[in-house]
Each structure stands twice: as structure tokens, then as C-alpha cells.
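Anyone able to model this chain together with nicotinamide-adenine-dinucleotide?
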Amino acid sequence: MTIDDIQQIAVIGAGLMGHGIAQEFASAGYQVRLHDVSQAQVDAGIERIRDNLHLFVENELAEPDQVDETLSRIHGSDQLETVGRDADFVIEAVIESLPLKQEVFRQLDQICPPHTILASNTTAQMPSQIGAFTQRQDKILNTHYFNPPYLIPLVELIRSPKTSDETLQVAYDLMVKIGKTPAIIQKEVPGFVGPRLQAAVIREAFSIVERGIATAEDVDLVVRNSFGRRLSVAGPFQVFELAGWDLVLAAFEELYKDLNSASEINPLLREMVEADKLGVKSGDGFYEWTPEKIDEIRDRMNRTLIHRLKEDAGSET
Ligand SMILES: NC(=O)c1ccc[n+]([C@@H]2O[C@H](COP(=O)([O-])OP(=O)(O)OC[C@H]3O[C@@H](n4cnc5c(N)ncnc54)[C@H](O)[C@@H]3O)[C@@H](O)[C@H]2O)c1
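re: yes, here you go
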């Protein structure tokens, strides 16, 4: 099987991630079937895609006629059977529950043709667990997107020990074809690569705040205006190779002794959750989140990500 055998895409779950994933494939010219538990959920997902496409038009990332053209390639259904029976490549983006995902994969295994590749967008589960009850474990992998999937280029491709080289190659080629940046994760480990690195940063950030070294606001200020800026241009290995590993080694000899290496959750994180200081969700966290502030940060995030996409598009021409 090669990328040329992929004509029909199915996306299972039309929520925050699923609708954006469906949009990416349809924008690239693929026929997409989108499934959720009810027609209302499917329709809501398609409406979100329409809004995103209008945002792209407003920002000159798409032509106005591409909105209807892209939407015409997306067909929604609340029946898994309808969505799965002709699919060549399926991405599952239902809520994060291992038994639910296993059941969806078990059903897809029965519905889809034998050649169909089944992928999951899970952040937490291993592909070997999700596909455990299927007869096609060589055709299962994770395709882990980052939110929002239509603005962040990277997709982590995580293989299980049973995923075939062919499956991985087709998934890789497909992602390149639709304009994503795939990274291959050779071993299934919790957190893959991106979420693992983010977890390491936030563990130290919590420790800094807990020890009174700096406030959460000042930690954010430091990251946003220093190494955060560099990291969007060059990865950590590139950044440190600009400095030289000898200097890095000398600096880390002392520093590592003082870094947080706890394998327990930071008590401050537990206190935040117990006090219902959840962030945007409860309106309170390290920051006070008024509706205006929420809109402001979401808007800033979108504008910056769109600006980066336009820069990327410009550098390719
Ligand atoms: N939110 C993120 O930032 C993010 C990032 C990467 C990966 N993920 C992963 O993507 C997956 C989806 O997350 P989300 O944020 O889009 O969640 P979400 O709650 O926004 O969407 C999940 C959708 O799945 C639907 N659903 C539930 N059961 C279903 C079933 N049996 N069949 C079909 N649809 C069903 C729900 O109705 C809902 O529309 C999760 O595994 C999550 O861990 C999320």
C-alpha cells in the first residue's frame, strides 16, 4: 500500500480536535467523512470548520471560493458504519477514554476494508493498547496533533512494536502531502515527545513558583521573551549547539543538582485544583480570567500562529 491508495479519509469525533483534523484533509483536496455521536455534534463540527475557513480567508491564507469548495468535500454522519466502510485512512479523535477508544477501534476493524489504516489522536494512550482488540495491529498508529490542528504544523507519528514500516510510511507521506510536518516517534512512551517536554518545563515552573524564586507571571514573562522566542526558530539541540556542548556541560554540572526531579505531582498543582483555581475554565488560576482577557489571549495566540503560517507559506514559494 502507498499514499496513492488513500482517497477517502474518515475522522471519528467532531470536537475541538476532530473538526480541525477533518478541515486539514478537506483543504488539501481529500474527501472526508466526519462522524460524531449525534447529527447535532457533526453539524456543530462542520460550523466550526466554516468559521475557521472564514478566518483563513480574512487572513489571506485561503481564497473566498475555497470555503464552499472545502466544505463540499466533508460529509457528516452519526453512523460509524457510513463513515468507515469506504475509508482508506481513519483518524479517531473521540474523548480521552481508553475503553471507548478500544471499542471504537474494534468496531472500525469490522467495518473498514482490510487495507484501512486506523490512527488515534490520543494524548495519553499507547497505539498497542488502543488497537489491542483488532485483527490489524500492523495498521495502527497514533497521529498526535497539537491544538489548534489547523494552525500548528506538527503531527507526531507514534508506532507500536506491531505497527508496520509500510503503515508508518503511508502516514508520513500523507501528512507531508497535506502540508503537515510529521515527526516519527519510534517507541510508544507516555507523553510521546512534545507533551513530555512540556511536562518537564511545567514541573520546573511549578517548583520555581512554590520555592518563591519567581511569580507565575514572571516565569511566563521570562519564557515568552527569551528562550520561548528562540525555540520557535531552532529546537533545543540546535540552540545548544550554537553555544557548544562544553559550555553547556559546565553550566549544567551545578544547575542539575538544584533542578526539580520529583516523580510526584507538585503539591502546588494539587492545591490549585482542590481550590478550583483551574485557569480559564473557572475564571481563576495564577491569573484572573475575565471574558475580555480570555478573548485577548486567544486572539493574540491565533494572530501569532496565523502570522507564522503565512511566513512558512511565503518561505516555501
Ligand atoms: N484538546 C487538545 O488540546 C488535544 C490535543 C491533542 C490531542 N487531543 C486528544 O484528541 C482527542 C479528542 O479531544 P478533543 O479535545 O477534541 O475533545 P472534545 O471533547 O472536544 O471532542 C470529542 C468528541 O468526541 C465525540 N465522541 C464521544 N464519544 C464518541 C463516540 N463513541 N463516537 C464518536 N464520537 C464520539 C464527542 O461527542 C465530542 O464531539 C482526545 O483523545 C484528546 O486527548 C486533544
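The chain is about 50% helix and 10% strand.
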